[in-house]
Amino acid sequence: MNDSKSLRSKIAKTVRDIPRSGIRDFFEIVSSREDVISLGIGEPDFATPWHIREAASLALDRGMTSYTSNMGLLSLRRGIAQYVEKKTGIGYRPEDEVLVTVGVSEGLDLAVRALVEPGDEVLYHEPSYVSYNPLIQFAYGVPVAIQTKKENGFRLTRQDLEENVSDKTKVLLLNYPNNPTGATLSKEDVEDIAAFAIEHDLIVLTDEIYDELTYDKEHFSIISLPGMRERTIYLHGFSKAWAMTGFRMGFTCAPPELTEAMMKIHQYTMLCAPILSQEASVEALKNAEADIAYMKAEYKKRRNYIHASFEEMGIPCIYPDGAFYAFADVSKFGMTSKEFALKLLDEQNVACVPGTAFGACGEGFIRCSYATSLDEIKEAMVRIARFIEKL
Ligand code: PLP
Questions:
Q1: What is the CATH number of domain 4-47+290-390?
Q2: What pLDDT is recorded for position 59?
Q3: Ligand 1: distance of its center to the CA of 108 in Å?
Q4: ipTM of the assembly?
Q5: What positions does the domain Aminotransferase class I/classII large occupy (predicted)?
Q6: Residue ranges of the chain with pLDDT lower than 70?
Q7: CA 198–ligand 1 middle distance (angstroms)
Q8: Residue 353 belongs to what H/E stretch?
Q9: Would you kindly state where each structural domain of the chain is located, as residue ranges?
Q10: What residues flank ligand 1, with Cβ below 6 Å?
């Protein structure tokens, strides 16, 4: 009989060595407490718009409970291609360039595994979404984390890239609008990055899951630039702007060779995304513009409020142009960001995520999600003000 220690020794070393997500650890502490105001979760507080839910129920009523094509329903892939073309000006063929995935999470995993061989380096920028580094390691690649700088508003620069590239670099993974900083890029920033990718012959993975959620200026996608469509896997999904996290729906757009490579993994691992979620997503693409506009207007009010409150308290906050996170600089209080977050939770029952959950350069910051009601945000800010007064 195996005891727990010998069972653990059988687990693949890569998996054993990767730490658990800092967010998950933190939320286990949060869930053990009552009456907490959470600014922690990166999940819309809105219910999925009713007509999208209705499309899923209708599909269920009609007995649509089968597998779909591995690539996803053609009607959905057509809708996705139209949507992406409208946003970026770039057309993709629904037949062999659009793949429906189980969330952007699966898309990221497929893209990395389709490209990365042992020892290949993947550049990505930190602070970053928590899954990037582990996904690269699961594929036996080498994650190369570029530490973006608060002085640059956590925007990735050409110089950052040049300092980290090597002859082993194969892939560049981008995420703007960014989780956790809320940073966005200008067209000029994106042009610099594209020129770098072309010069070094890199494949670009661009996670644009927050592209609908920019508040001051429109998002500009790297695929819109000359020479990028042919070297880029564009990743997007329904979780955030459509408030559909539980549907687990995402998609990739990429040249046929790359789509086929991802599809090979997808067909043996996932087979296809759930049909009810796919049916709901067809409706989401057809009729949700007004819902997105409504939610976005609400996020904008909250963004303005949370940013102004931090500034009034003397806590500098990276101006969040996009996504639904405020990244606040609490370094002057003489604690690590984890200590700050734990003490805030302990003394005022407000949960936020320590910046270090997103990489080393998140030290000194806390991430506060404003995907929660304005009333809750107001109360949380009162408590944070009370908390720092006592420090
Ligand atoms: N990419 C980023 C930047 C995210 O913030 C998230 C979720 O928080 C994901 C991907 C995963 O999204 P999905 O629900 O589509 O798997």
A1: 3.90.1150.10
A2: 98
A3: 9
A4: 0.99
A5: 35-384
A6: 1-2
A7: 26
A8: strand 353-354
A9: 4-47+290-390, 50-287
A10: 42, 103-105, 129, 175, 179, 207, 209, 237, 239, 245, 250
Give dist(CA 350, CA 35) in Å, integer: 9
Q: Domain 50-287: give its CATH architecture.
A: 3-Layer(aba) Sandwich (3.40)
Which structure tokens are listed for 232?
């880029």
Q: How many CB atoms lie within 10 A of CB 283?
A: 21
Q: Look at residue 210 and give its three-state secondary structure.
A: coil
Bridge partners of 169?
121
**DSSP per residue over 68-122, as a string?**
--TT--HHHHHHHHHHHHHHHS----TTTTEEEESHHHHHHHHHHHHH--TT-EE
Q: How many A from CA of 124 to the centre of ligand 1?
A: 15
Spatial distance between the Cα atoms of 90 and 229, rounded to a whole number of angstroms: 8
Specify the pLDDT at position 258: 98
pLDDT given for residue 1 in this prediction? 54
Residue pair 156/300 in contact by the 8 Å Cβ criterion:
no
